[in-house]
Write a structure and sequence with these properties.
The protein is α/β, with parallel strands linked by helices and 350 residues long. The chain has a domain at 12-200 and 234-269 and 313-330: 3-Layer(aba) Sandwich (Rossmann fold), CATH 3.40.50.720. It has 11 helices and 13 strands. It has helices at residues 21-33, 51-64, 81-91, 107-110, 112-132, 167-186, 208-217, 237-248, 274-287, 319-325, 333-347; strands at 12-16, 38-43, 71-75, 95-98, 137-143, 190-195, 198-199, 222-224, 231-232, 235-236, 261-266, 272-273, 301-303. It has a 7-stranded parallel sheet with strand order 3-2-1-4-5-6-11, sandwiched between helices. The protein has a two-stranded parallel ribbon with strand order 7-10. Helix 5 (112-132) runs parallel beside helix 6. It is globular and about 60 Å long. The N and C termini lie far apart (46 Å).
Length: 350
């Protein structure tokens, strides 16, 4: 295991995407663990999906904040260079966690401009700000999508990732390349985290488990891609947050290229077939009262071909994470989906 070299006690921490799924959960966990830290969140709270859920997350953050100075939210985009420069000049963050991004593989085909603006220009602004306002550690979100058309599984951080199959994946790979270059040139300690299919309560409605639930509630048909032959490494949000907090405390040492740079997978290391996933989801939706016990699931399933930009399997090799931090995600899928179903029932007042 690596020794911790970044203390989070009393630190000024910048979290971009603070109203997002992972960002909000990270902020709450940091406040609980390190009540003397100060966290500044940046989020444009856009309407890519239901803004009500983002406001719900911000309300949950407010419930755990004990002092006014513990958390503050700046509403704006990381693509706004002036805003980011002002944030760094005034707040002077010591640790930065960049989670702000335009997410979604399929949406990147419909609206590529949003991805170039947020994921490329926005991340560039963060790197430039870290260059001119040195930080102890920059942690940023990458994605399992960078593995693209790779055939070898499980996906290892040592594998080549030169075959993206979506613009979203390409922008995330560009983040890794830019971070490495800035680390080499300017000594910025940077760690990228390749997240694998994150799910849980108050998650993103565009993710399969949430979208399936909405459609089933409305009596619509759910489409299961690749005729049900896809597998996903579903990772519960609490495991993701635990991984991020661990990584934040260990700025990477200089590598063989002279860069203080590292990349880790954070995934459950246990891919699940989509048909099995849907079966577990429907059981938990029924047992938690989201759907009636006599719901006819077979009438509401449709097996369809693969969509452009998707991959058949995601499967995380988490060996590096385990070796360096003694940690790996472990929440069973059923347990995680049960938490989601309970939240869904409460949030939508079913």
């Amino acid at each position: 295991m690596l020794d911790k070299n970044v203390s989070l006690e009393g630190r000024r921490i910048l979290v971009t995407g603070a109203a997002g799924f992972i960002g909000a959960n990270l902020v709450m966990e940091l406040i609980k663990r390190y009540p003397d830290c100060r966290i500044l969140g940046v989020d444009n709270v856009n309407d890519y999906y239901d803004v009500g859920i983002k406001k719900y997350r911000l309300d949950k953050i407010a419930e755990v904040v004990n002092e006014d100075e513990q958390f503050e939210l700046v509403r704006g985009s990381i693509a706004d260079r002036i805003l980011i420069d002002n944030v760094f000049n005034e707040f002077k963050p010591e640790v930065v966690v960049n989670l702000a991004a335009q997410a979604g593989v399929r949406y990147s085909i419909e609206n590529p401009d949003a991805y170039m603006e947020s994921n490329v220009m926005g991340f560039y602004n963060i790197l430039e700000a870290c260059r001119h306002n040195p930080v102890q550690h920059l942690v940023y979100a990458s994605s399992s999508s960078v593995y693209g058309a790779n055939k070898k599984i499980p996906y290892s951080v040592d594998d080549k990732v030169d075959n993206p199959v979506s613009l979203y994946a390409a922008t995330k790979k560009s983040n890794e390349l830019l971070a490495h270059a800035y680390s080499k040139l300017y000594g910025i300690p940077a760690t990228g985290l390749r997240f694998f299919t994150v799910y849980g309560p108050a998650g993103r409605p565009d993710m399969a488990y949430f979208g399936f639930t909405n459609k089933l509630r409305n009596g619509e048909t759910i489409k299961i891609f690749n005729f049900g032959n896809c597998k996903r490494d579903f990772t519960f949000v609490d495991d993701i947050v635990e991984g991020v907090v661990n990584v934040m405390q260990v700025a990477p040492a200089e590598n063989e290229n002279g860069a203080r740079y590292k990349v880790y997978n954070i995934g459950n290391n246990d891919p699940v077939n989509l048909l099995d996933f849907v079966d577990i989801l429907q059981q938990e939706l029924v047992s938690n009262g989201v759907l009636p016990e006599d719901y006819d699931f077979e009438r509401h399933k449709e097996l369809v071909p693969m969509q452009p930009g998707d991959v058949e399997v995601t499967y995380a090799d988490t060996k590096a994470l385990e070796e360096d931090f003694g940690f790996k995600p472990s929440t069973p899928l059923r347990e995680g989906l049960r938490s989601f179903a309970k939240w869904y029932k409460e949030y939508y007042r079913i």
